[in-house]
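> forwarded from #structure-qc
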């Protein structure tokens, strides 16, 4: 049985994950618009991943018999600037999500809700991976600078990303 506080915080986290999905879908649309199809693919895969994060929390609330309360999702921006701007915004957003997960974990520990604390471990690890991926791409974009060839290569690399459903990765 989850406390009211934990239930509320997890419902809010569903909303944050849904916004993450929406944000990355908007980044994908922006990338398509400016002709960067590889970036568009990367962000669409990211959108799919974020939807699985939201569903992971949804299913946890369901298993715990808690009340699920879906909230309105904010409108994301339309224009994200250069590819480097876009990935810097992605990293900043992921840092915000990491803080939110850490706050949730602190709350779970304060409430002695060990089931939720264990459930959140997966997200703690996932955030390390997400921030690391963003930092890696930012480094490459900085290296490429104004070089069109460099950007072309990065676009090609990001075009190869494939969505792996959670069941297939044993998560
Ligand atoms: Fe990007 O990890 Fe969920 O939000």
């Amino acid at each position: 049985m989850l406390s009211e506080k934990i239930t509320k915080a997890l419902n809010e986290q569903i909303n944050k994950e849904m916004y993450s999905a929406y944000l990355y879908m908007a980044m994908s649309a922006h990338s398509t618009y400016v002709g960067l199809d590889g970036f568009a693919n990367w962000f669409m895969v990211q959108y799919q991943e974020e939807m699985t994060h939201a569903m992971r929390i949804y299913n946890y609330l369901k298993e715990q018999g808690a009340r699920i309360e879906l909230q309105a999702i904010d409108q994301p921006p339309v224009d994200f600037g250069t590819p480097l701007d876009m990935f810097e915004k992605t990293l900043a957003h992921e840092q915000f999500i990491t803080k939110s997960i850490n706050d949730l974990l602190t709350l779970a520990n304060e409430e002695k809700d060990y089931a939720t604390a264990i459930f959140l471990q997966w997200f703690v690890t996932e955030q390390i991976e997400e921030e690391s991926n963003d930092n890696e791409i930012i480094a490459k974009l900085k290296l490429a600078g104004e070089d069109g060839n460099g950007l072309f290569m990065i676009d090609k690399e990001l075009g190869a990303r494939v969505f792996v459903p959670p069941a297939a990765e044993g998560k």
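QC bot note: The chain has five helices and no strands. Helices lie at 4-33, 37-63, 83-110, 114-144, 148-158.
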